[in-house]
Amino acid sequence: MVLEQKHRLVIAEDHTILREGLKALLATRPDLEVVGEATDGREAVRCAEELNPDLMLLDLSMPRSNGLEALKEIKRLSPHTKVLVLTVHKTEDYVFTALQAGADGYVLKDSSAAELTLAVRSVLNGERYLSPAIATTVVSGYLGSKDGISLRPGFDDLSSREREVLKLIAEGYRTKDIAEYLCISPKTVEKHRANLMERLNLHSVSALTAYAIEKGLVAN
User: Fold this and answer.
1) H-type helices in the chain, by residue range?
2) How far apart are CA 116 and CA 133, in angstroms?
3) How many whole angstroms separate alpha carbon 213 and alpha carbon 167?
4) What's the pLDDT at 141?
5) Which of 26, 132, 142, 189 is most buried by a 10 A CB count?
6) Domains defined along the chain, listed by start
7) Helix (H, G, I), strand (E, B) or coil at 157
8) 189 in Cβ contact with 182 (< 8 Å)
9) Are 90 and 108 within 8 A, CB to CB?
10) Which long-range contacts (CB under 8 A, 24 or more apart) does 186-194 make?
11) What does pTM read for this prediction?
12) What are 129's strand-pairing partners?
């Protein structure tokens, strides 16, 4: 009897309890084998390069190189590896940025075990998988762009100072730190941030961060 070859998986998730839960869940599937674990973005990239897994479950919010940066490197170093993003982020900006960076699937952490299993199998079969909760957002964004509506207007019109502020926000600096670094007042920083959110139609720091990564303002 010839045994079916198992698909090799890596789990990149910085929360131990969740990572162990995912490992236990996937271990119940006879065709899946967890061959590596990573607790931050750099470890995820190293695992992809050294293990060349069939699929990586990748959290977007991790220390030492976030998931979006790691995703680009994983796709560059291990093109064979499918990447299934597993995250809490539901905003349009995170979804589109992850897909543009090469994600093969996008699943929310509040999904059921059955949905996660379906997502893993779909991606391994060469299909793209999106959680139903965000699929409508993706379709709406696509239709909006087809109608000539810019999803993220105004980047080319941003001043050099606004780009500086955007970059520092994306790198995690606080208002006070940005003000000191740029030699401006905290109120001016807050005004720049408010203007950025209005002009780019982005309404949270996480959305600004995803946008800055997409535009290459934050180095990999």
Assistant:
1) 16-27, 41-51, 67-77, 92-101, 113-124, 132-146, 160-170, 175-182, 186-200, 205-214
2) 13
3) 9
4) 56
5) 189
6) 7-145 (3.40.50.2300), 155-214 (1.10.10.10)
7) helix
8) yes
9) yes
10) 189/165, 192/161, 192/162, 192/165, 193/165, 193/169
11) 0.66
12) 105
pLDDT value at position 138? 65
What are the two backbone dihedrals, phi and then psi, of residue 85, each rounded to the nearest 5 degrees?
-75, 130
Instruction: Collapse the DSSP code of 168 into the 3-class scheme (helix H, G, I; strand E, B; otherwise coil) and give the result.
Output: helix
User: Token digits for 94?
Assistant: 């995170």
Length of the chain: 220
> What are the backbone dihedrals phi and psi of residue 186, each rounded to the nearest 5 degrees, phi first?
-55, -35
Q: What's the rounded Cα separation, in Å, for the pair 91 and 207?
A: 7
DSSP result, 174-201: -HHHHHHHHT--HHHHHHHHHHHHHHHT
Whether the Cβ atoms of residue 55 and residue 120 lie closer than 8 Å to each other: yes
Q: What is the mean pLDDT of each run of 10 residues along the chain (220 residues)?
A: 76 94 92 94 94 95 80 92 91 79 91 92 92 72 48 66 89 90 92 87 81 73
Six-digit token pair at 177?
Answer: 């730190």
Distance (Å, rounded) from C-alpha 8 to C-alpha 36? Answer: 9
